[in-house]
Amino acid sequence: MCVDLTLFPLDTIKTRLQSQQGFYKAGGFRGIYAGVPSAAVGSFPNAAAFFVTYDCTKSLLSAGGALAAPHVAPVTHMLAASLGEIVACLIRVPTEVIKQRTQASPSSTTYHILLATLREEGVRGLYRGYGSTVVREIPFSLVQFPLWEYLKALWSSRQGHTLYSWQAAVCGAFAGAVAAFVTTPLDVAKTRIMLAKVGSTTASANIPEVLCDVWRSRGLTGLFAGSIPRVTFISVGGFIFLGAYEKVRRTLL
C-alpha cells in the first residue's frame, strides 16, 4: 500500500503515455493522483491474495516429489507465482479498471467512474481486461520471482550467510526492473483494452490484435510507451515491497 500510494504519480504518467488518446489529451501532468482511492482500496487485499497463494503453493510443491529437488526450484517459483497472479487478478482487475479510467479522465472522480462503468457495462465491465491482465502478469512473474530467488541464493552463497533485508530488496529491484521492461508491450495492450470505449473494436479485441494495431500506428515506441515510468515504479516499488516483505516475514516466522 505504501508503494502504490507514494509512487502513484509514476503509474498515472505511464497510463497516460499508453492511452490511445495520447499523453496530453489524457490529462498530461494534471490530476496526477486521479484514481488513487481505487489503488488504496485494492492494494492490501491484492498483495495479500498473491503472497498467500505464492507461499502456500511454493511450500506444497517443495514438500516432496520431483519438484522438491533444488535444481527445479525455478519451476516451483514459476508455478507458484503464476497461480498467485491468477488469484490476485480477481481483486486487482476491478480496481485497475476504475483506477486507469480515472487516470485517463482526471476531470472525473473514482466514484463517478465506478458508477458509469456499472451503469454501462454492469459487473462484467469491472472485469474487462481480466484475460489481458493475467497474460501480462504471468510472464512478469515468470521473470521476476525466479530471478529474485536466484539472485538471493547467489548473493547468499557468495557471502556465506542469509541475506539482510536490504540485500533482498536490491535483488527485488533488479528482478522487477528486468521483468517490467520485457513485459511493457503486454502492459500497453492491457491498458488500451481497459480504457477503450464500450462497443469499440479495442474493447473486445485480444492482445495480439491490439499489439498489431499499436505497431501499425506508433511502431516500436508505441509498444514500449511508458516503459521508463513503469520500470522506475516497479524497481523502486520492488525494493521497498520485497525488502519489507522479507523483513516482516522473518520477524513473524
UniProtKB/TrEMBL annotation:
Superkingdom of the organism of origin: Eukaryota
Biological-process GO terms, alphabetical: transmembrane transport
Residue intervals passing through the bilayer: 163-182, 223-245
Compartments, record wording: Mitochondrion inner membrane
A GO cellular component entry from the record: mitochondrial inner membrane
Keywords, alphabetical: Membrane, Mitochondrion, Mitochondrion inner membrane, Repeat, Transmembrane, Transmembrane helix, Transport
Family: Belongs to the mitochondrial carrier (TC 2.A.29) family.
Name listed for the protein in its UniProt record: Mitochondrial S-adenosylmethionine carrier protein
Organism: Scophthalmus maximus (Turbot)
